[in-house]
Write a structure and sequence with these properties.
260 residues; alpha/beta; 2 domains; 5-stranded mixed beta sheet; two-stranded parallel sheet
Length: 260
């Protein structure tokens, strides 16, 4: 929502629902002009928000998506686009909880969307037209790069871009710990790791950036970086990353089955 507003969306067009009144007040203060409705004050807040909406974004945890979809079903117009940003909830599961023929889109954003640097995937349901899918793409374009993929690739994408920011943060944690082991002050080591990972990310964000080429540019023959990279390869770091991504994708498939 913050990214959409920063990208030019009119806050007056946005209605957000939350459970607690203090959370609603916080959102309304942070995003001036939106309407925020708390469930503890207005038990019908979700149906109120869905009534008359052109696009409804479902942003609760996966286990609550189907119940929320059923809750708002009666308030939806036939052409209201329902977008789920919940991991592991399939289009089939979502469509089963909504009125027959409802346009549905499954999306997978990641946390850098807060800064307008996110990656957002979209996968259209069987009743979603090309124009409706484009409308969703236009909305999400305000928060980063939008990619259209078939639903069967969502778990793989989630393992790379959805969980990926955590991998980068994990790397920064490990680098900071390594600096302390080498004798650096903990605060200094954390600063070095944080700024290095953030700076490298900005370099990767340059048009046409190639991670392999950027790595090679830093890796002088017989130098310190070459020795570090060789050690990573010897210890099997690429295989470890691939195994982690595979485990994330498999876990997403497991959750889908559990929710089904």
């Amino acid at each position: 929502m913050g990214g959409m507003i920063a990208g030019g969306a009119d806050p007056a067009d946005i209605v957000a629902t939350v459970r607690r009144a203090e959370r609603a007040a916080e959102l309304a203060e942070r995003h001036h002009g939106i309407t925020a409705i708390a469930g503890e004050e207005e038990p019908e807040n979700n149906t109120q928000a869905a009534t008359g909406a052109a696009v409804v974004v479902l942003g609760v945890k996966p286990v609550g998506i189907a119940d929320l979809a059923r809750e708002i079903s009666g308030a939806l117009a036939p052409d209201t686009i329902v977008v789920s940003v919940a991991a592991a909830v399939s289009l089939e599961q979502l469509e089963a909880a909504l009125p027959e023929g409802q346009p549905v889109i499954r999306s997978m954003p990641n946390t850098p969307a807060k800064l307008g640097r996110g990656v957002v995937s979209v996968s259209a349901g069987k009743h979603c037209s090309a124009g409706q899918l484009q409308q969703a793409k236009d909305i999400f374009a305000a928060v980063g790069t939008v990619v259209e993929i078939p639903e069967e690739q969502v778990d793989a994408l989630s393992a790379i871009s959805g969980s990926g920011p955590a991998y980068a943060f994990y790397l920064a944690e490990a680098m900071a710990a390594a600096g302390v082991e080498l004798g650096l002050d903990a605060d200094l080591s954390l600063l070095l790791a944080r700024e290095t990972v953030a700076g490298a990310g900005l370099m990767l964000a340059e048009p046409g950036a190639d991670p392999a080429a950027l790595r090679k540019a830093v890796t002088s023959p017989n130098g310190t970086t070459e020795r570090a990279i060789a050690t990573f390869d010897e210890r099997g770091l690429p295989a470890i990353i691939a195994a982690g991504a595979r485990a994330a994708s498999e876990r997403a498939a497991e959750i889908t089955k559990q929710l089904g």
